[in-house]
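Here is one chain, start to finish.
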Amino acid sequence: MSNQTASGLVQTERCTTVEELLSLPDDVRVAQLSHRLLSIVAEVLGVVEQEILPDTPFSQLHAAWADPGQVYASLSGPIQELIARPFHSYEFWRLPHRAGPIRSIRQLAEHLSREMAIPAPESTYTDPYQGGTWSWGLPAPRPNGASKNRPAAFVLAGPRSGSTLLRVMLARHPGLSCGPELHLLPFERMARRHRLLTRLGYPWMEWGLEQTLAALAPQGAEQAKQRAAQLVQGDVSIEEVYRLLQGQIGDRLLVDKSPSSTFHPAYLTRAEDLFEEPKYLYLTRHPCASIESFVRMRFHWLLGDHFGVWNPNPWLFAEKCWAANNRHAIDFLGSIPPQRQQWVQYEDLVTDPRATMQRVCGFLSIPFDDAVLHPYQGISATFELGDPNLLAHAGIDPALATAWEKNPPPQRLSPFTKDVAVELGYTVD
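Its structure:
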């Protein structure tokens, strides 16, 4: 049975589970989701459903909702319950895809319907870079003999490799300064960095520097934001920014964990240009684990077709990201003396964190400190740019090493991916 509602939607018997929604044709599923979202919005706003139309812009439903961020803050919790998965802000904003924020109930229903079941790829890829667009340019080489900053350390890891966990473990050590993602290495100067991140839709890549400045200085978040803006207005060089940070941390070792560092081989060589004998912590994770996490967390809405690898199918996009980023890291480290690199498997980090971090501390020439084994003590939502799931954990979970096996990626891995995996010591089918 069905009937026409005041909102103009066809009312059908209401589904109650994600599985039931998945069993419906696309148009019916969108209608069902629209009905559910109408109920959610009506409850949040304290009105009756009949007063809301699915195509009415959110900005017209409530004065505060002229700000899309307020829409997301109001609806994200109920939406996550509805779809039984995380619904993160970058999926709502869709900035790298130039789509802009979701602006109505119908748009939201259509988006959620498409994202409910991501189809398996029809075939493997052959070249990870085929079809990808590179939008960043490359920094010019520094002159021979240019002065360098004092030593620092860099965490190299592709997306969804567990690098945020490693970062917060390192941040607990009193001899280290390891703040949120800085995203500095790919650039020469701060003004161009700001312009590119704004134009391409990655404003979040600027937040880590602001958060780090706020944590290192007593003036607070607003003053730190102003300081970051001054660095842009003054078009300060990236080496000067690093020097500023090193000057504020005293004798501690600066550790930079920014996934963008491995997006292009030239970015990695920048670390050699800017620092005296930098060290590298290379964190690896099984490709299937990273791919599953990438798609489950909908990282294809966080990253667009700007990094040289791309596929409209999120499963293949995730696989290409894993393969290319790790290929870049392996090739780069082939030119670095062994004493300046330490390879760490995520699986070891979560199943035997003490032994793993003892090796890491020894590599960084700092004494082991038990604090690194308690990374979730004292973390906050305002200082943890990286893994959107970070605040959902209370301790290091060894089950995460193999959790992906319960829901493995649906594709057959490319030979390119398999070759990289074997180099890293992973068994793949």
